[in-house]
């Protein structure tokens, strides 16, 4: 689950190569073997989903996150890290071991990843409290503190001519607005600044991203307008403000990979698709977010091989979700109209075992989302009702990988068990747990480890897969790839707050 705005995202590159999926030409005898299996049924598939297997997988995933220890000093599966590469290998090899049942494909796309380890800004004798290093900022020279006078840049610092001659060797103070933070940083770098500080033009602190890396970027901070004003007055009065800046960070371009596995059996023109994300944030191992989705999909895929399916089932493990839904965006952007129409619906599984959980169902509705989204929503709620469980609706607002699908005409939905939202007293009556605390108190933190799991919601995933693998009876047909009324912009996509 991607963090709520204001979101400081890393950036994705627009173009890239892809190893796309060849899906037909099943050899006749493996088809015969698949056909000899019993037809999928929800109860039979659920019976095979064992909590113990999921627990074992979560331990393995934690070990894989520890592959990043050398570089990050803690376990993580963020894209570009050994922990993420290990996760992708683990997913791929787990499916490959299942033999002929699935067609597996890798889809590699370019992304930019950055990591900020430490930063400090001192202006005169003061540390502005609101100072934050911008996402995807390069480090200061040699990752050491640099020293120079603060120089006020004219206008918004988007033009070369805004920078006074004495910007060389200085820390440039630039107003927010008109052009992107990355443009300001590059202009300051070209003018010879050793660092840049962008101050806000609206209330509050300023966190942003430089976006696509450039050789001209210099180490860049954001500060609030309130913090900046006293310095601006002093500079305008001709005062010299000796300052220092320090950022230790890395920015690099990486190739990262979605894994797609599709059943060779079943109607290849009518697929139920489901996905979870294989990556975590840099801060921790991401065992609930979204190790739980990753593991559930793996376990469901593993048990599904015992059955014959009528409709094809396509599993996806997305990369770069935490950087702005990069993998799922890229995947959907590469679908031809014909391929798009084969996907009858997409089910998102992100954060399934939050310790202070609520059973959350995305409130997907046919009037604002592609038709079929509501039928999927009702499948989930009917299941909870049948099992005597409570559930809540949560906003279907684009905070996870379903977003590219519903924006491109594909019905979508999903369930979750809660991220950094605060559990209410009413929800404690409904689900137990602790009021006033986050659903996942370890959301996006180091403690999102194997002790951070409440194994509850897995069976519903099996139910959803089995239901549609057996039949789309009554489920609306796909007719168009048109974007629907749901035009909420691109809140959580790619680099946010670039200006
Ligand atoms: C796909 O990715 C997996 C996992 O990283 C790797 O083992 C495999 O060789 C890749 N296959 C192709 C065709 O690139
Ligand atoms: C830089 O030059 C401007 C005039 O262009 C001047 O007002 C300012 O004081 C100078 N700053 C430093 C640090 O010399
Ligand atoms: C700023 O630093 C310069 C060079 O180190 C020094 O000569 C000057 O006295 C300092 N000015 C102030 C106001 O601290
Ligand atoms: C569902 O919520 C109600 C309160 O709204 C509560 O009385 C009931 O016990 C809950 N059911 C379960 C299975 O927790
Ligand atoms: Zn997340």
Automatic annotation (TrEMBL):
Signal peptide start-end: 1-20
Annotated SUPFAM superfamilies: PA domain, Zn-dependent exopeptidases
Cofactor entry: Zn(2+)
Gene Ontology molecular function: aminopeptidase activity; metal ion binding; metalloexopeptidase activity
Localization: Secreted
Residue ranges of every copy of the PA domain listed in the record: 146-229
Stored InterPro entries: M28_fam, M28_SGAP-like, PA_dom_sf, PA_domain, Peptidase_M28
Gene Ontology BP term (one): proteolysis
Domain spans labelled Peptidase M28: 258-465
Subunit comment: Monomer.
Similarity comment text for this entry: Belongs to the peptidase M28 family. M28A subfamily.
PANTHER family in UniProt: AMINOPEPTIDASE Y, METALLOPEPTIDASE M28 FAMILY MEMBER
Name under which the protein is recorded: Peptide hydrolase
Annotated organism of origin: Phialocephala subalpina
